[in-house]
């Protein structure tokens, strides 16, 4: 996969989000000449940079795990992650707050977590936690190298010794039943199953294999980059530019066409020729650019959406902890509301206060608040929800819930409220930023394939391996591997 002398190789990456940046770095590290075309005026995609009146707000992902995947992108061009980003380990990773008024600080350190669970629920569940940690680590050891961190080519690629090992670890059973085998206390079952929402499936419908997400954040740990999540984007762009990756911002791609032994990429400003193309948009958008509806996997089920509120809080907030999980009386009831196409009546939600870790994100004495309330996608019965009409009432519902939870939000600065309708207006299918759900038939080799044609590849959350920051970074590397496995020798040119 290393180019030889006199073999110029070229690729165009469409999209400068995390998947596109990962792709660009891995391709450039292999000697490919890379141009990144981005419709927006800045990089970031679903991890944008928003600063209002001195408050830096995250309007995309806020939970960062598995930073070794990020390090691999920098290492591809001979750089070290630590030279470009300052990462802070969060302890606790989360604080879980339950409907009965109790709470649990969720530590990465196994002994501290054992002690916290024993204090909350007794020795039996503390011992269950010890077994749980060992179990999800075994799941991780099986799943990551064999089913997540590699390109899969159809069902036959699963036929390997790891498959029966995954079955033996109850990876194909129901996730809620797997969690219940370790924890008797309902509060703990909630706290250790909410991760299913990251993959877009309620815990009582998710497969046990997705308990691997617990290994990623509650065992391996959660970190936060100084400067906010967009600091990751800034660092990746800076490193890519230093290694001669070309970026062209404000240049949306209109079409991609086969041309000779490569591709012609049309924007509203120019046309480009390249050996290979990596599209980091949603598969439906890729099908439009290629004028080929057969690219799109039929009958896709979307993940739930969310309503996001992000704002500065001039008066500041009391308490400690960066990420907070607030559970209603019934997590399953809240999820049933969403899958039935209605907003949660008894909400469970995530609150992040990133200024607990990085005070530079807000003026002195102030805080930044990020609240994410899961909501139905604009699909099926969820498409009937009129978010234009509901917007004001749902905002008031969120503010009441936040106030009851201990976050006084009467005075907000730079407020951003994003509903499923807003996500859809921003070009996200089904009005969800979480792409397609990780149902069984939309995971692994059953998910939207990343290969579309010769040296024509997808990356991003809509393809393999899936949703989440580590996954889209992996998707970029897997896309690069696909390109490098079959890259031609056509030189990049620009017309117009």
Automatic annotation (TrEMBL):
Keywords: Carotenoid biosynthesis, Oxidoreductase. Residues 18-484 form the Amine oxidase domain. Pathway: Carotenoid biosynthesis. It comes from the Bacteria. InterPro entries: Amino_oxidase, Carotenoid/retinoid_OxRdtase, FAD/NAD-bd_sf. SUPFAM superfamilies: FAD/NAD(P)-binding domain (SSF51905). Signal peptide: none annotated. Belongs to the carotenoid/retinoid oxidoreductase family. PANTHER family: PHYTOENE DESATURASE (PTHR43734). This is Phytoene desaturase family protein. It comes from Flexivirga alba.
